[in-house]
Design brief:
With 793 residues, this protein is α/β, with parallel strands linked by helices. It contains 20 helices and 24 strands.
């Protein structure tokens, strides 16, 4: 007995694979089970019961050519063939062994091969059908993709995010339908005839009654949100992998074509040979020497049953073949390598769900034959809008208002600032912090400000650093008069959002980015005409000239900063139009001389030429035309000397000459009587002119990192000096006259060759230990009473 369970391995698949089995494959599977039962049943009978029973024929040898079994035919048939001869009652004188021998010999020689092997053929053919049907589930090149797909599909179908996303869409559709009904009702009320005011009010109120509540949204915890996020990544990678080829589609076609060919072959040869299953079989074998007979009449005991089984088997094969033919029709009557989510897009409102192709499309077509709901729920994870909603939800879970409040800090302006860096999006919870005055967003991709931005009523400063942002028009109106400072940093300046240039209440605009090579020479910037209150403009780029649009704000611009990152700034004539400019920074602009256009800025108060290539500053004489100039920064250049006519700058209060190549200073520098700060650190000075003692208003003097060996005693005539930085020089002693600097509060002496400190330091009433920067050994060498004075609070 052969149990059917032994053949289970040929058709066994994972339960999840059933979603890829359309109705015709299911029907074919049941048909193969039925055919297998027929074969197994026939094989069982063949093995357990006698196959054939033979009796010797008593025909004379001269009549051996006639059929030995004709006398056993029905009477009517035998009479037509010449009459029946009576042979009953004869003894054969054969023992049991001889009968067994004859039965086996006649079974092998006389019985037709189809009648002999019919049940085995049924089993073999059925197994071949089973293999053809399930081969693509077993073949390594296809089974891996199918397993991956069914695994992802099941998770997508059961994911709480799918339910939430579809519920949100359902809620939006409900709102849209309700709005449509309300509009229709209002239009109907505006028909012919004039209705009373009471009737109009009734018409306007009625639509609210028919609005149905949208389904309640499911709440996702953090774990479910992370799982859904991982599903989006899996679907994205799986789509890229599967859409590259069509091996699944090709394999399914091949196995279907093979099944059709097998169907025709099996059907034809079964119809041809089925008539060879007969009840009586004539057997002629030369065994007369052994048994005494050469002709036998045999009875095929299973013939009647096998003929009925053959009829059933052929019927099942015909039905099976029809399913295969229908499968071929389904495969070729429309393109299955393309799948459109148009109906899903219309139903769900997710218009960004992409169409798919190749094996991905083919599997989705099969899924639709099982249950189209799977495709609909799976499509949620193909939508970028859905993915962005999920990211937003996860962000809101992670960044609660309480956590955001912990990040609030006071910035340099004293404003309450919130800084967010390298997040996948902007949490909606940010807009619950109405106390925020400055918002700094760094490395956050694709920001779209939601309506909740209007809750930040105190927002005055916005920084977008490598964070492209979109702003709806309604929020542009909200920020137009409220936002005062905006900073934008991007790879190229053409990426700066256009809405930035429409904020008419803006007072400070800071832009950082490069001009494309083809636009660097023109240095074209968007029009600034709308920025009527702009006072500060900072531009860090690689422009070859001052952007022409800067002149749009010439009448009210007070501070202009151009940082060119070493690229040479050539055309500066447009600076002459900035009549109201008070502060100008030209940093790293590749300047070799001071631009003449600067001398036309009569209102200029501060000038910074840091990090250029200035070697000579002979033009410094022309600064006397800038009568309001009080701060001049010429630091970080290559200036070798200061011209004598620096004396003309009597109104100058701060002069920065650090990080240059100065070795001497002109004595005329002492005639700049207005100087309050002088920074000459990081140069090569070996001595100082005594005339520096004339700077009676000097409060800060930086001489660190030079080669000074001594200080002129006249220097200590600067009685207002508060900060004196002498560190890292070659000083061997400090004059006792330092005690005359009563206002001194900070003195740096580290890195010199001093052996002792003058005890007159105790006379510097404003100097304390914290303000005295010197080696510990020198400090300990001071008298105890001096140290006590320095350590007094």
């Amino acid at each position: 007995m052969i149990p059917v369970a032994e053949f289970k391995q040929f058709t066994e698949q994972q339960p999840a694979f059933k979603v890829l089995k359309p109705w015709w494959d299911v029907l074919a599977e049941y048909l193969t089970v039925a055919m297998l039962m027929i074969g197994v049943f026939g094989c069982t009978l063949q093995v357990t019961q006698d196959k054939i029973i033979c009796l010797p024929s008593h025909e004379l040898r001269e009549n051996l050519s006639e059929a030995p079994c004709q006398q056993l035919l029905p009477r009517g048939v035998s009479e037509e063939m010449g009459g029946l001869r009576e042979v009953s009652g004869l003894k054969n004188n054969l023992d049991l062994q001889q009968y067994s021998f004859i039965n086996q010999l006649c079974y092998e020689t006389a019985l037709h091969w189809y009648a002999k092997y019919f049940p085995y053929l049924v089993v073999i053919h059925t197994l071949m059908f089973m293999v053809c049907t399930s081969f693509w589930f077993k073949f390594p090149g296809t089974s891996s993709k199918i397993e991956h797909f069914t695994s992802i599909l099941g998770k997508c179908f059961d994911s709480p995010w799918t339910t939430r996303a579809l519920s949100e869409v359902s809620g939006e559709n409900h709102k849209g339908a309700a709005a449509g009904r309300a509009t229709a009702t209002m239009e109907a009320s505006a028909g012919p005839g004039k209705a009373s005011e009471g009737e109009k009010e009734k018409v306007l109120v009625e639509p609210e009654k028919v609005v149905t509540e949208p389904p309640a949204l499911t709440l996702l915890d953090k774990k479910e949100g992370e799982q859904a996020k991982a599903l989006f990544e899996k679907v994205k990678k799986f789509r890229m992998h599967v859409e590259e080829g069509d091996i699944l589609y090709t394999m399914y076609i091949r196995q279907t074509v093979l099944k059709v060919c097998k169907f025709f072959a099996i059907l034809v040869y079964n119809l041809v040979y089925v008539e060879n299953i007969s009840f009586l079989v004539a057997c002629r074998v030369e065994t007369s020497e052994v048994t005494g007979y050469a002709s036998f009449c045999c009875n095929h005991t299973k013939a009647h049953l096998f003929s009925k089984l053959a009829f059933c088997y052929i019927s099942f094969v015909c039905v099976y073949g029809l399913t295969c033919l229908y499968t071929l029709y389904w495969l070729f009557h429309r393109p299955l390598k393309e799948y459109s989510f148009r109906s899903v897009r219309e139903e769900t409102g997710m218009g960004d769900i992409p169409d798919v192709k190749n094996d991905f499309a083919f599997m989705l077509h099969l899924i639709d034959q099982y249950d189209s709901l799977y495709s609909k729920r799976f499509a949620v994870f193909l939508s970028e809008v859905s993915e962005s909603r999920l990211k937003q939800l996860n962000l809101n879970h992670e960044w609660t208002p309480e956590k955001l409040r912990q990040k609030l800090q006071r910035n340099a302006r004293g404003q309450l600032e919130l800084t967010l860096c390298m997040l996948p999006g902007l949490p909606d919870t940010v807009f619950e912090l109405s106390e925020v005055e400055a918002l700094r967003l760094e490395a956050i991709c694709d920001i779209t400000f939601p309506p909740g931005l209007s809750q930040l009523v105190n927002l005055q400063e916005l920084s977008l650093l490598h964070s492209p942002a979109r702003l709806p028009f309604s929020l542009q109106i909200f920020l137009r008069d409220r936002l005062k400072v905006i900073r934008v940093k991007c790879e190229e300046l053409r990426e700066v959002p256009l809405w930035v240039f429409g904020l008419r209440g803006l007072e400070e605009l800071h832009l950082e980015g490069l001009f494309p090579p083809e636009l660097a020479r023109a240095a074209t910037l968007e029009s600034l005409r709308e920025l009527k209150q702009l006072k500060v403009l900072s531009l860090r780029s690689n422009a070859s000239k001052v952007p022409a649009s800067v002149t749009d704000v010439a009448g009210h611009l007070q501070r202009l900063s151009l940082h060119n990152d070493g690229a040479r700034l050539l055309a500066l004539n447009s600076l002459k139009k900035l009549a109201a400019l008070r502060e100008l920074e030209l940093v790293a602009c590749g300047l070799e001389r001071i631009p003449h256009a600067i001398f036309s800025l009569g209102a200029l108060q501060e000038l910074d030429l840091k990090d250029n290539h200035l070697r000579s500053i002979e033009e410094i004489l022309s600064f006397q035309h800038c009568r309001k100039l009080v701060t001049l920064r010429l630091w970080h250049n290559q200036i070798a000397y200061v011209p004598e006519h620096v004396r003309k700058l009597r109104g100058l209060e701060q002069l920065y000459l650090s990080h240059n190549k100065l070795e001497t200073l002109p004595s005329q520098l002492g005639m700049c009587s207005g100087l309050r700060l002088l920074d000459i650190s990081h140069n090569g000075l070996r001595s100082l002119p005594p005339e520096l003692g004339l700077l009676q208003n000097l409060q800060h003097l930086a001489l660190s990192y030079n080669a000074l060996e001594a200080l002129p005693d006249e220097l200590f005539f600067c009685r207002k000096l508060r900060t004196l930085l002498l560190g890292y020089n070659h000083l061997s002693q400090l004059s006792p006259q330092v005690g005359a600097l009563r206002a001194l509060s900070r003195l740096e002496l580290k890195g010199n060759r001093l052996e002792a400190l003058p005890e007159e330091l105790g006379n510097c009433a404003g100097l304390k230990k914290a303000g005295l920067l010197v080696e510990d050994t020198l400090y300990e060498g001071l008298p105890a009473e001096v140290r006590e004075k320095l350590e007094e609070e």
